[in-house]
Amino acid sequence: MMRRRALRSGGGETPLRYRQLRAKDIWLILILTLLTTRLTNAFAIPLTYDDGGAESFWSDYYPNGIAIRFGPPASKWRINAILIHGFIIDKGEKSFIVEIRDKDLNVIFRTSIPVSEYFKNATLHWARIPLPNVTVRDDFYICVYPMLEFNGTQLWIGIDNDTAPGNCFLIGCYKQEVRSFKGGQAMIRVEGEEIIDFIEIIPNSIFIDEDTLKISFKIVAPSDSVEVRATLQAGSLIEDCEVVFDKGLYRARIGWLMLSGIKEPAELSLSAKALNLTATLAIGLNETLFSKHLELKEENEWLRAMVNGSGIELGALRNKLEKEENTTALLRASLKEYQEIMSEKTEENERLTEELNMMRLLVVSLAVSTVFLLIVLVRRRTLGKSGGDKNA
Fold it and tell me: Residue 100 above 80 pLDDT?
């Protein structure tokens, strides 16, 4: 019986076929070549949880996938391949994604695999998919994203319902978390081998400034005594580059003067030797790098000219600001003087108002006194006339 989860929204991006390293919009192609002399076991060790028989099948839409947690049988273990028990319904070319994540679900390896190269149409079998010797030292997850398409090629993974050790989970390609899977045990296995001694170069970062290109990297080796070299090669040109060690990182420094005359893609080769072990890492520097450097250099010169022009303009603005500040100071002084005049005028108006009120009071008093005197005079005259008439 086939199982298929319902279509979910979100995540429809095209998977990348290569891991890419980016620094200030410059893509550098990393070609990892590990030439290492190792003492290893003669046969690969398989890690498995299923019993070899599938009772059902599982698939899902991108970005949904299934994850199996494994514990390495040794402290230093190299994954050589994964095995998937399943089949496809072939309706055209298609790829699916495989990841290796550490115990904290950080992605340490991701690749896109053409499904028709490893699975047969409508034929259930074990597909062995080689991996580029990924080293783990703790629990890890193998994640498979079937990229189910309703009308396209479909990949179905076998499910063992008789075995359920609790290490099969559902996972999202863009999430750093897993969910429980109750359907059984996905039939995904791992092949690997114990590493006795090994040496590895791990790229860390790329830094670009006006004068140099700097590439920093780590070296994992069984000895602290490590011989490190960096060589730049372009056509017949071969030149050693400076390598320094600081705070646990090696830094290879390439001057732009060294790269300026190169008209074709170059290659920076890093090599590390410790005891009887050797590792190399080749970093391709294509023409995009040089053209981008020239663009950045022109942009830098343009920005400098702009800064210089801005400095002149800034000086003019400062002079104008000083003039405006002087004008503002004069206006403030005039305003203060005007406020003092207004204050004096206000005091004078208040004094005149008080005098006017006094004048009004005196006028009223004078009027009242005049009326009173008139009344008295009129009364006396009236009384005088009355007395004269009586005497006559």
Answer: yes
